[in-house]
Design a protein that fits this description.
Number of strands of chain B: 12
Strand content of chain A: 25-35%
CATH superfamily of chain A: GHMP Kinase, N-terminal domain
Structural class of chain A: alpha+beta
Shape of chain B: elongated
CATH class of chain B: Alpha Beta
Helix content of chain B: 25-40%
Structural class of chain B: alpha+beta
CATH topology of chain A: Ribosomal Protein S5, domain 2
Number of helices of chain A: 4
Largest interface: A-B, 40 and 37 residues
Radius of gyration of chain B: 19 Å
Radius of gyration of chain A: 18 Å
Order of helices and strands of chain B: HEEEEHEEHEEEEHEEH
Number of strands of chain A: 9
CATH superfamily of chain B: GHMP Kinase, N-terminal domain
Shape of chain A: globular
Number of domains of chain B: 1
CATH topology of chain B: Ribosomal Protein S5, domain 2
Number of domains of chain A: 1
Distance between the termini of chain A: 47 Å
Distance between the termini of chain B: 49 Å
CATH class of chain A: Alpha Beta
Strand order of the largest sheet of chain A: 1-2-3-5-4
CATH architecture of chain A: 2-Layer Sandwich
Oligomer: heterodimer
Number of helices of chain B: 5
CATH architecture of chain B: 2-Layer Sandwich
């Protein structure tokens, strides 16, 4: 979020640099069950972002002090591969990935029926292989498909999607240039059947009206991505039959 | 660990919520008493102490000279960090930064950074060679709930009293740090099924998700964050956003009347 106004992000005809309309999202492809070792897994390609996610568990939680007597704990690790960005990232956990891991875990805990698995742990490993703005959203989408693929009971899936503001215009699903030089970014995790939110972050500058338009775009995109998620899950089980 | 107390507490909070009451007698959108003291730490370049009910938070500002980031050769930098030391309460343990303290620091950081209240270009000493790094450190010494709002308030109040210690670095004369806006955070926690403003320690212990909203002078949103387990509807959010507009105006006046640059 530099908010650098000197980079042009909208064409004269109102389309964006990559040709999308303001309320058009990047293409999303999803595959479920791509990792043979995991109990559940997913691959999400959102625009140029690639996220893969593995779910292990529920298994007995160790060490015992992390156990909860009435529910499972969800342990999320969001990690960007060193080669996922234009400049190499130093491997390992940093402040950004710790924060994203924490809020992602809390979002997933809101939909997983954690009370069914006391004293256990569900590990959700999110690896970002290619990053072009919107990786936390791709990670959330991947995690909820992987959890469903692992057969873990959930109230709903969570769809990760973002909108924001560039050149004083609200747009859906920011790409890298728009994220770097735009004015605001609003990533959310939406429960597609109710429209409720389990994940919410935002930075930049949005008026209340712009915020409402962002949310409208996000809700619309969540429905579209939800269909792709359902299709991916069905396809896996049709193939396996 | 059997969480017996929270289960009993949750029931009590739900019963109170059904009657439209809170445990300490406040109404749904009522904050605790807030005291703000600025310029209270001798060696810090800017400082503030916030007493928010029984929650006490200090913020101190320090400077360093460093090399600019390669992609921003003529801009200084801002870094906001928070420490949740064991002194703040019995749930905190010593050790490396916890996810909770990282989240706190980063959410406060985003609100200040994204409001554009600091002109980072004015923190350049020699383009491409040396710039000032502004470090805001938040020290929570007593956590009785809602440390987020208290920390954000302390941070912006401390920045507003900050003197750039240029003579110490031989880069000029000491001068006030220019702060052009006053971003304010307002947080809500779901307690007994409905959102309340400024949850205290009991309400946090027996409550669910929390939402942090940072608003700028013009009522624009600069930072949002949802934490902990739970989901909320767009209609619930619309209501708390409206409530936060009023509360932020009140707190902004408090910060501005506390004095500063």
């Amino acid at each position: 979020m530099g908010g650098y106004g000197d980079v042009k992000l909208l064409n004269d005809d109102g389309t964006r640099l990559d040709g999308r309309k303001v309320d058009e999202m990047r293409s999303v492809e999803i595959k479920a069950g791509i990792l043979p070792n995991a109990d559940g897994s997913a691959w999400v390609k959102h625009g140029l972002n690639v996220a893969i996610c593995a779910v292990y568990g529920p298994v007995e939680a160790h060490p015992r002090k992390i156990q909860r007597q009435d529910r499972a704990v969800i342990d999320v690790r969001y990690n960007m591969a060193p080669f996922s960005t234009s400049d190499r990232i130093r491997p390992g956990y940093n402040r950004r990935s710790r924060e994203i891991s924490k809020v992602t875990a809390e979002a997933l805990e809101s939909v997983v029926l954690v009370e069914r698995f006391p004293r256990s742990k569900i590990s959700v490993e999110i690896e970002i292989l290619a990053a072009e703005a919107g990786t936390r959203c791709a990670g959330i989408t991947a995690a909820s498909v992987a959890l469903a693929d692992a057969g873990i009971p959930m109230r709903d899936l969570i769809v990760g999607v973002a909108s924001g503001k560039i050149e004083d215009t609200v747009v859906l699903d920011l790409d890298k240039a728009e994220d770097n030089y735009g004015q605001a970014d609003l990533p959310v995790g939406i429960l597609p059947t109710t429209g409720d939110l389990a994940f919410l972050q935002m930075d930049g500058d949005l008026s209340p009206d712009e915020f409402n338009l962002c949310m409208e775009y996000n809700q619309k995109a969540a429905k579209e991505i939800h269909e792709v998620m359902i299709k991916a899950l069905k396809e896996k089980y049709e193939e396996g039959a | 660990m059997v969480e017996l107390v929270p289960q009993l507490l949750r029931q009590e909070l739900a019963d109170l919520a059904a009657m439209g009451k809170r445990r300490d007698g406040r109404s749904q959108w009522e904050s605790r008493h807030i005291e703000l003291e600025v310029d209270c730490l001798y060696n810090a370049d800017g400082s503030a102490k916030v007493t928010w009910g029984d929650t006490i938070v200090y913020a101190g500002v320090k400077f360093e000279i460093r090399q600019p980031w390669p992609d921003r050769p003529s801009e200084g930098s801002l870094m906001c960090g928070a420490e949740l030391r064991p002194i703040a309460g019995k749930k905190y343990e010593p050790g490396p930064p916890s996810p909770e303290s990282i989240e706190l620091g980063r959410v406060v950081d985003r609100g200040i950074r994204e409001s554009g209240c600091i002109d980072l270009g004015s923190l350049c000493v020699i383009p491409g060679e040396s710039v000032y790094g502004v470090m805001v450190d938040i020290h929570v010494v007593s956590d009785s709930g809602n440390i987020f709002d208290a920390s954000a308030l302390a941070a912006i109040a401390a920045l507003r009293t900050t003197i750039v210690p240029a003579s110490k670095f031989d880069t000029g004369e000491d001068h006030p740090l220019k702060i052009t806006k006053t971003p304010i955070m307002c947080s809500f926690t779901r307690v007994g099924g409905r959102f309340v403003m400024d949850a205290n320690a009991d309400e946090e212990l027996g409550g669910d998700e929390r939402i942090h909203i940072t608003l700028g002078d013009d009522g624009h949103l600069h930072s949002l964050q949802k934490g902990l387990k739970g989901v909320f509807s767009p209609a619930e959010f619309a209501e708390i956003l409206e409530v936060s507009q009023n509360q932020c105006d009140v707190l902004r006046k408090m910060v501005e009347s506390a004095g500063g640059n």
